[in-house]
Specification:
It is a single chain. The chain is built from 8 helices and 21 strands. With 351 residues, the chain is of the alpha+beta class. It has 2 domains: 220 residues, Rossmann fold, CATH 3.40.50.300; 123 residues, OB fold (Dihydrolipoamide Acetyltransferase, E2P) (Beta Barrel), CATH 2.40.50. The radius of gyration is 24 Å and the shape is elongated. The strands form 4 sheets. A 6-stranded mixed beta sheet has the order 6-7-8-3-9-10, with helices on both faces. Strands 13-12-11-15-21-14 form a 6-stranded mixed beta sheet. Strand 17 and strand 18 form a beta hairpin. Bound molecules: adenosine-5'-triphosphate. Adenosine-5'-triphosphate binds next to strand 2 and helix 1.
């Protein structure tokens, strides 16, 4: 287990600034996610941490060691790639053994450690198989075993599940988490899949345009997004325009709604404009009289355990409202409904 720190990392590729003074601290034993849209710099940051890319400015520390100029293997880090990067002409065992052979580890020890790595990824007995006889999911396990066999302190994963089908991705999520925790690794995991990050991460960083915009636990980032961009990127949300009326009171469509100001939003003074983020599942459909918001249901999508309604508010804005375990279906166009929301589910964000 090792603490990983990035200090003020800037990375430029010619005129493109891929990372702009990024700082980050990842706790020992943590499974940490870098999350963000395409081109935001998450792979570049991971590659700087891995030693596959040199930062233009700034430093990387593993524990007390400044590793900015060290190659990957000297950092005691191992990387798992989206493409697996396995040698197709070798057996599973040979692929896993390769890194140890390069390090001139004794033959008996290599055999023992390859077996151990195969057991960790639940592929005991597959050592003599050709790579081309393994399924996509099994190949990803082999690439994990190859990373683990060198006994790294840090495991760095770049979209490791992107090439797998939906069912396997779900299975491998808990597998990777188990492997990281059982082997006491500090792991950094890059993905653009927010469900993967929310379901697996201890903490995550949301990135945008070469910068980190929020760091927190999945629950913190989901419930308390610092900006409307983060709110919209992590899960689904409704963004309503409002005007601040008090410290934590906003007026939306003539009604006062209580909420929480996220972070230090000095700009959210009474009278200033605000963006109000409310998740679809935070709304409750109630009688229209006296409800903070009213609207007409214009569409219904039945998903079994959940129904998603599109509700058109008085200003013609359409919001999404989901009902869990619905007792009965509401008919689109037939009724005006009220929407209420608990103040703890209302995030007040700067415009
Ligand atoms: P994706 O999810 O699409 O992989 P990302 O968040 O991982 O995106 P990066 O690959 O880190 O993004 O790229 C960040 C920025 O740096 C992009 O604008 C990209 O075009 C640029 N970039 C990355 N690598 C290079 C390179 N080797 N040469 C030039 N520009 C690069």
């Amino acid at each position: 287990m090792e603490r990983i720190q990035a200090h003020n990392i800037t990375k430029k590729f010619g005129s493109v600034t891929a990372l702009n003074e990024v700082s980050l601290e990842i706790d020992p034993g943590e499974l940490f996610f870098l999350l963000g849209g395409s081109g935001c710099g998450k792979t570049t940051l991971l590659r700087c941490i891995a030693g596959l890319e040199q930062p233009t400015e700034g430093d990387v520390f593993f524990g007390q060691r400044r590793v900015t100029k060290l190659p990957t293997h000297k950092r005691e880090a191992a990387m798992v790639f989206q493409s697996y990067a396995l040698w197709p002409h070798m057996t599973v065992g040979q692929n896993i053994a390769f890194g140890l052979e390069q390090r001139k580890v004794e033959k008996k020890e290599i055999e023992r450690r390859v077996q151990e790595a195969l057991e960790i990824v639940k592929l005991g007995g597959f050592g003599k198989r050709g790579i081309d006889q393994m399924s996509g999911g099994q190949q990803q396990r082999v690439s994990l075993a190859r990373a683990l066999v060198v006994k790294p302190k840090c495991l760095l994963l770049d979209e490791p599940l992107s090439n797998l089908d939906a069912q396997l991705r779900l299975e491998m999520r808990s597998e990777i988490r188990r492997i990281v925790k059982e082997n006491h690794l500090t792991a950094v995991y890059v993905t653009h899949d927010q469900a993967e990050a929310l379901s697996m991460a201890d903490r995550l960083a949301v990135m945008n345009a070469g910068e980190i915009v929020q760091v927190g636990s999945p629950e913190e980032v989901y419930r308390r997004p610092v900006s409307s961009d983060v709110a919209a990127f992590i899960g689904e949300t409704n963004l309503l325009k409002g005007v601040m009326r008090d410290r934590e009171v906003v007026e939306v469509l003539g009604s006062k709604i209580n909420g929480s100001v996220i972070g230090e939003h000095a700009a959210l003074k009474p009278g200033s404009n605000a963006i109000v983020s409310i998740r679809p599942e935070a709304f409750t459909i109630v009688a229209p009289e006296g409800a903070p918001l009213q609207g007409r249901i214009i569409q219904r999508v039945y998903l079994g355990s959940v129904i998603q309604y599109s509700v058109c508010l008085s200003n013609d804005q359409i919001v999404q409202v989901s009902e869990q375990n619905p007792a009965h279906l509401r008919e689109p166009d037939s009724e005006i409904v009220g929407l209420s929301v608990s103040s703890k589910d209302v995030s007040l964000l700067e415009k």
